[in-house]
Amino acid sequence: MHKGKGLVRRIILILLCLAVLAAALAFGVSMYMVSVTESRVLLQEGDSPGEADCILVLGCGLRPDGSPTPMLSSRISRAAELYHAGWAGKLLLSGDNSRADYNEVAAMKEGILELGVPEEDIVQDFAGLSTYDSLYRARYIFGVKSVILVTQEYHLYRALYLAEALDLEAWGVPATPRNDAKQLVRDLREVLARDKDFFTAVLQPRARIMGDPIPFSS
């Protein structure tokens, strides 16, 4: 009987050790991704690296009525500010339009137009189904070589890491954060996403949806 209890304790201890090791590895990869990209996060208006090929706005969801979520609205506003400040001559809006009733890019374009960006300077990517897909398509479908990424800061590090793995000269400008009760959940989920995309950056699969190249110039 005592031997059985001892065996159970050892198994529990081993499982706890494995869980701690897995957590340490997960957070270690996340911290590494932040450390190697944080120098490319630009926080001040005067930090402009010079005109890039485009400002890439990454989609992040719509409200039930089809309008941008507050986080997406923040990205749109920040991108328009950078455009008007001369950071790039083109905006690339990349988001999910995998269903007829869900079109992030159309909502993004409407918001950008309202902020005074001319329609001829807006390029739409309706197949940005993930951060990686958006960046892969920017590089290989739209022919982008240098890019300003606009998203919330917690997401920028992963986006920059993927961009650099795809040989994009990239900088990140954070949109206004969404400080609410869900941010802790977003931060924890982002740790797992960084772990996943660490390996995605190594393997570099094709985007889920490709198509013919349609390069544009700034």
Main traits of this protein?
5-stranded parallel β-sheet, 218 residues, 49% helix, 6 helices, alpha/beta, elongated, 5 strands
How does this structure look, described?
The protein is an alpha/beta fold and about 220 residues long. Helix content is about 50%, strand content about 10%. The protein has helices spanning about 1-35, 70-85, 105-115, 130-140, 155-165, 185-205; strands at about 55-60, 90-95, 120-125, 145-150, 170-175. Helix 5 (about 155-165) links the parallel strand 4 and strand 5. The longest helix has about 35 residues, at about 1-35. It is elongated and about 75 Å long.
Query: Which H/E pattern describes the elements?
Result: HEHEHEHEHEH
Q: How many individual β-strands?
A: 5
Q: State the strand order across the main sheet.
A: 3-2-1-4-5
Taking the sheet with the most strands, its summary is: 5 strands, parallel
Question: How many DSSP helices?
Answer: 6
Q: Give the radius of gyration.
A: 20 Å
Q: Averaging pLDDT over every residue, what do you get?
A: 88
- Sheet-strand content, in percent, reads 5-15%
Helical percentage: 40-55%
Which spans have pLDDT < 50 for at least 5 consecutive residues?
none
Query: What is the terminal separation in angstroms?
Result: 75 Å
